[in-house]
Amino acid sequence: MYESFQKYLSKELDEIKNAGLYKDERVITSPQRASITVRGGKEVLNFCANNYLGLSDNKRLVEAAKKALDQRGYGMSSVRFICGTQDLHKELEKKIAEFFGTEDTILYAACFDANGGVFEPLLSEQDAIISDSLNHASIIDGVRLCKAQRYRYANADMTELEECLKKAQDKRFRLIVTDGVFSMDGNVAPVDRIYELAAKYNAMVMVDESHSAGVVGQTGRGVTELYNLRGKIEIITGTLGKAFGGAIGGFTTGRKEIIAMLRQRSRPYLFSNSIPPMVAAAGIEMFNMMAQTNELQERLHWNTKYFVEKMQQSGFDIKPTQSAICAVMLYDAPLSQKMAAKLLEEGIYVVGFYYPVVPKGEARIRVQLSAGHTQEQLDKAVAAFVKVGKELKVI
Ligand SMILES: *Cc1c(COP(=O)(O)O)cnc(C)c1O
């Protein structure tokens, strides 16, 4: 059998390569941080990590993880409900709820699992899920696993959302689900208006704060802080794998009855391992740090504003952003790849995105800012963009 299957796979893989869509992985040989070393020895400035607060190599977190490694060992070898729950896991869940102003939290191995396991235990055929068309793949997969009727509205289009809500009025329960920040444009979902429509049409709201938590809002508490909706959203999901240290882990936080039901019925929680004690311990330390100071948020917001303004002044076409994601619009797919390659030669690591990751004719370079970048590093990046931009006649 395998001979024919092998032929089939080789052909499919060739097609991916011929379409220019084959994903190669660049190998990093240093810790994840603003300045990294890639295999071959080249040192580059990193502008494509989700390391928004610069915590991936933070000393305090590394020390907390080391201490837990010594005191609590390496792994849990169990799911939570059999023998995989340490006091560390319970404490981290409490810290997450405090951070978001919610009632309770449930941890997962990743936010992909949190989203994969949130819909099916809560909703059934009688119910409706209304989803933004640009929601993350894990939300789409999670919705597929659930028998509820599905409705979809164009990205952040409140007229379409209202239409969906009207159509779903005969359903028992309605849940609107949206990413907090959309990762390709960096725009924030209009959760204020979503919340109003939910109230008008009797629906619940779920926000995935993966790209917004730690970043959006004056103190980084996410879109519920930005819109003054702390404690009012039924379900929030998020990751420990981006701003919050970048190791691994996801969570669902919100109304306590919802979290209680997920602990009973959510399959990625019931049938998958606990996060390692060192990750839980470093997570607790991270939330302690967040409770003490907003220094990193202030730095990140300053860095983002500074970079965007410098790029605009240099003549680049920048999408308006409300997050730490900055889309440098080029519109042309080959140009986006060429520009990213030339920037790497200049020591600036960024990625060019094009269809099907973004709409046709909207190719771009996505720059992700971090509190870990210094002003000097930002200046270096802008200078490289200007040099390469002139060479390629973008500006
Ligand atoms: C990154 C991301 C996830 C997945 O998070 P992991 O913890 O890495 O699995 C889920 N949702 C959104 C919106 C994301 O950006």
UniProtKB/TrEMBL annotation:
Cofactor info, note text: Binds 1 pyridoxal phosphate per subunit.
Residue numbers binding substrate: H136, R366
GO (cellular component) term, any one: cytosol
Origin: domain of life: Bacteria
Binding of pyridoxal 5'-phosphate, residues: C111, F112, S183, D208, E209, S210, H211, T239, L240, G241, K242, S272, N273
Residue numbers of N6-(pyridoxal phosphate)lysine PTMs: K242
EC number: 2.3.1.29
Keyword Transferase: yes
Pfam families for the chain: Aminotran_1_2
GO molecular function: glycine C-acetyltransferase activity; pyridoxal phosphate binding; serine C-palmitoyltransferase activity
Gene Ontology biological-process annotations: L-threonine catabolic process to glycine; sphingolipid biosynthetic process
InterPro entries referenced in this protein's UniProt entry, alphabetically: 2am3keto_CoA_ligase, Aminotransferase_I/II_large, AON_synthase_class-II, PyrdxlP-dep_Trfase, PyrdxlP-dep_Trfase_major, PyrdxlP-dep_Trfase_small
Pathway named in the protein's UniProt entry: Amino-acid degradation; L-threonine degradation via oxydo-reductase pathway; glycine from L-threonine: step 2/2; Sphingolipid metabolism; Lipid metabolism; sphingolipid metabolism
HAMAP family: 2am3keto_CoA_ligase
Function: Catalyzes the cleavage of 2-amino-3-ketobutyrate to glycine and acetyl-CoA. Involved in de novo bacterial ceramide synthesis. Catalyzes the condensation of L-serine with palmitoyl-CoA (hexadecanoyl-CoA) to produce 3-oxosphinganine. Also capable of using alanine as substrate leading to the formation of 1-deoxysphinganine (1-deoxySa). Contributes to the levels of endogenous sphingolipids in its host.
Similarity-based family: Belongs to the class-II pyridoxal-phosphate-dependent aminotransferase family.
Protein name: 2-amino-3-ketobutyrate coenzyme A ligase
Gene expressing this chain: kbl
